[in-house]
Amino acid sequence: MSNPKDLILPIFLLFITMVIAIYFRPLMIIDETRYISVAWEMYNSGNYLVPQLNGMPYDHKPPLLFWLIVTIWHTFGVSENLVRFIPFIFASGVVVLGYKIYKLLWSKDTYGASIFPYIGVGVVIFSFYSTLLMFDIMLSFWVALSIYAGIKAILDDKLSSYALLAFAIGFGILAKSPVVLVHLLPLYIFASFWAPKRVKLSFYIKGFLAVLIGIAIALIWAIPAAKLGGDEFAYGIFWGQYAGRAVDAFAHKRAFWWYIPWVPVIMMPWILHKGFWSGFSKLTSKIDSGLKAIIVWIAGDMLIFALISGKQIAYIAPEFLAFAILIARALSQSRYTIFRPYLISAIFVLLGSAFLVAPWLIKGYIRVFLDTKAFIISGLLLLAYALYLVFKKSKTQKEQIATIATGATLIIFALHFSINLYLKSQDLTSFASKISKLQKNGITVAHYGKYHNQYHFTGRLLKPIKVIKNTKELNNYIKNNPNGAIITYKKQKVKFNKSSIIAQTKFRTQNALLVKAKEWSNLLK
Which residue, among 263, 229, 262, has the nearest Cα to 63 in the 3D structure? Predict the structure, then answer.
């Protein structure tokens, strides 16, 4: 029998995963540092309509995440750790909605609904993305809510279901973009194919009206923001960013088939469970309406995103939920047989062995100090877990599934713990604080090359950083600001004249340097 209590342990595992990430990992360069810095500028400027990056309108993302961060800061004070729990909250919501969607699709399969939350959080890539202060898991929540509302509208045809649909679409647009509609498109176009009952014309009419109302909700922000932000900002939020990615990507342009190899990764480790394949063969022998819905959801969305020029695994994050529902449904068909999870254990053996030998294999290629002991401990933990999976005598399949789900948290711990020294080296706080100190003393700070706002929040900067694009601008800056400072990046193996440097830190695989402008020519030894 399914029970809301089935949600408690899986959500607790997500919470533990989030705590692990916050403890070991500073804000991730460049994405997390950029987004929290945009929120920081919004917090300080009081301009809640037009997000800003380094003092200029930022049209790449809508404002919902920034609003949430600013709201938390106004309520509880400025805190990095507190706002980093935002993705955990939305990830928990995705798990809850997946549980509810499952019950709508298969109302009699209470067992499948009860194991779904464990499978959802046991998908390693979902648990990892749930630790990132980004837009993808938040968008996944609004997509899931839209799908839940849409299925409910087909089943009960109530005004409240359509109202929920409009609400979810509106906030989905505010969360990331109108891409929320792309994720919904196949399910709604082909509703008459998969729905368990006849789909009336009124569903499409009311659903279309719900879409219009959802768009109207987003326009309540977009129209005044466009007027305030100017023509370039207006073009960006209404067309430029989304059309550019779809037709001819200015970033992440990849081949049509690029997502295909990611499918088994998304389904890990459950794709290696013998019960999944046993149950899946039973499912495909008689395809019901629920399975049709999941097939349309996965196949339709994957095809659309394959056709879109720009590709990132994060772009199909809402589909992680669909894969998890499919896995739960397949495993529910083999509930009475407890298979030994040998293949899943083998993956943990491979991972554990990789961690044990990694320090010696990568030592000559990665120029950071490796914590060999941490790698060994992580490897041994994964090997021990592999043995535990094989020899643990689970009384039920559900107990075994809960045990496997815990493995996702262990993998994420091992990843963070083993590279803890590298992660610590990526903390920009001290370096950014030096920039802040210079600005407070009236010294102009410039950034040589594209600036991603990575220092604004970490240094609590209150002024923009001047961006220098080329050598001519650099020479002019040095001439006009001899007492100024310049941020630049050099390969780690390059030797520097330390007297020319105010501060330095690791920045991904490079060194970030804060250099005295008048000493620029003396930087390299």
Answer: 229
DSSP notation for 443-502: --EEEES---STTTTTTT--SPPEEE-SHHHHHHHHHH-TT-EEEEEEETT--B-GGGEE
d(CA 512, CA 506): 6
DSSP 59: -
Residues of the chain with pLDDT under 50: 1, 248-250
Alpha carbon of residue 452 to chain centroid: 18
Q: How many helices (H) and strands (E) does the chain have?
A: 24, 7
Q: Residue 199 gets which letter from DSSP?
A: P
Closest CA to 207 of 271, 279, 146: 146
Q: Tell me how many degrees the CA angle 238-243-247 measures, rounded to the nearest 5.
A: 175
Cα distance between residue 96 and residue 93, in whole Å: 5
pLDDT at 22: 96
Order of strands, sheet of 466-468, starting from the edge strand that comes earlier in the sequence: 466-468, 445-448, 485-491, 510-516, 501-507
Scanning the structure block, which residue is given the tokens 């449904």?
Answer: 329
Phi (first) and psi of residue 487, to 5 degrees: -95, 125
Rg for the chain (alpha carbons), in Å?
Answer: 25
Of the candidates 389, 369, 391, the one whose C-alpha atom is nearest the C-alpha of residue 381 is 389
Report CA-CA distances (Å) from 333 to 114, 327, 341: 13, 10, 17
Q: Record the tokens describing residue 354, joined without a space.
A: 């990789």
Structure tokens at 367: 């120029």
Long-range contacts of 396-400 (CB under 8 A, 24+ apart): 396/338, 397/115, 397/275, 397/331, 397/334, 397/335, 397/336, 397/337, 397/338, 398/111, 398/114, 398/115, 398/118, 398/335, 400/338, 400/341
321 phi/psi in degrees, rounded to 5? -65, -45
pLDDT at 490: 85
pLDDT, residue 463, reads 92
Query: Is residue 369 within a helix (H) or strand (E), and if so which, with residue range?
Result: none
Structural contact between residues 403 and 392, judged by C-beta atoms closer than 8 angstroms: yes
Q: pLDDT of 75-90, one tens digit each? A: 999 999 999 999 999 9
Angle at 156 between CA 151 and CA 162, to 5 degrees: 65
Instruction: Specify whether the CB–CB gap between 129 and 136 falls below 8 A.
Output: yes
pTM here is 0.91
* Phi, psi (deg, nearest 5) at residue 505: -155, 165
Quick: pLDDT tens for 170-205: 999 999 889 999 999 999 999 989 988 888 888 999
102 DSSP β-pair partners: none
The pLDDT of residue 1 is 47
